[in-house]
Design brief:
The chain is α/β, with parallel strands linked by helices. About 45% of the residues lie in helices and about 15% in strands. It has a four-stranded parallel sheet, sandwiched between helices. Strands 1-2 form a two-stranded antiparallel sheet.
Length: about 200
């Protein structure tokens, strides 16, 4: 894949070289030249040069007056995992998981508690609800029974791995069309790997 990227994702200088090479070939083609002459057009090989100004990317300010540079910062993802500059209070979050994977739901709550403490994030410990069957009808029925007007955030621990969850589209469709509440999907495979960074990103 890395070798393929050198061909499909060329840098600016390589793209300019490829463009000049293409235009040189095009201008030498008799049929192409005839069409250009009919339209009184000429394709210049060299791009137009204009004056520009580079603006400083600045800094990101987090909570507790923590700041860090944006540009050329290879640790920006790690540095952003701290208390936010401004947060929204989440009072009634709920989590849904399969009954057969209840241990993953409990593990998720434990990891979430750690992240909540690290971020000093204003979120109450979520209620954990079990879905009794692995078909989508059971998920939808359980969600509609447990989500109330007071619920302000929903987390679904769905079966499957990255880009391979059978209920992802169903879940998004349900909450967009019928239950207008913020939703976050967490995949079972992610929790089995105990990926704490993914849990942190939910809060961010």
């Amino acid at each position: 894949m890395k070798e393929l990227a050198t061909v499909t994702k060329k840098g600016p200088s390589k793209r300019l070289e490829a463009t000049e090479e293409f235009l040189t070939t095009l201008n030498k083609n008799e049929k192409a030249s005839e069409v250009l002459q009919k339209w009184a057009m000429k394709l210049e090989k060299k791009p137009i040069t204009i004056s520009g100004q580079k603006i400083d990317a600045g800094q990101i300010e987090m909570g507790k007056q923590v700041r860090f540079d944006i540009e050329n910062n290879k640790n920006i993802d790690r540095q952003a995992q701290t208390k936010l500059h401004r947060e929204v209070q989440i009072s009634k979050p709920v989590v849904f998981c399969l009954r057969s994977e209840f241990h993953l739901g409990q593990s998720f709550l434990n990891m979430l508690k750690t992240s909540m403490d690290d971020y000093d994030f204003p979120i109450q410990r979520p209620e954990l609800y079990e879905v009794d069957s692995s078909n989508w009808d059971s998920w939808e029925r359980c969600i509609k029974n447990k989500v109330t007007r007071e619920t302000d955030f929903v987390i679904l621990i769905l079966p499957g791995g990255k880009k391979n969850s059978p209920f992802y589209n169903d879940a998004k469709r349900l909450f967009i069309n019928e239950i207008p509440i913020p939703i976050q999907v967490v995949l079972q495979d992610t929790l089995k790997g105990k990926n704490v960074r993914s849990i942190n990103k939910i809060l961010v």
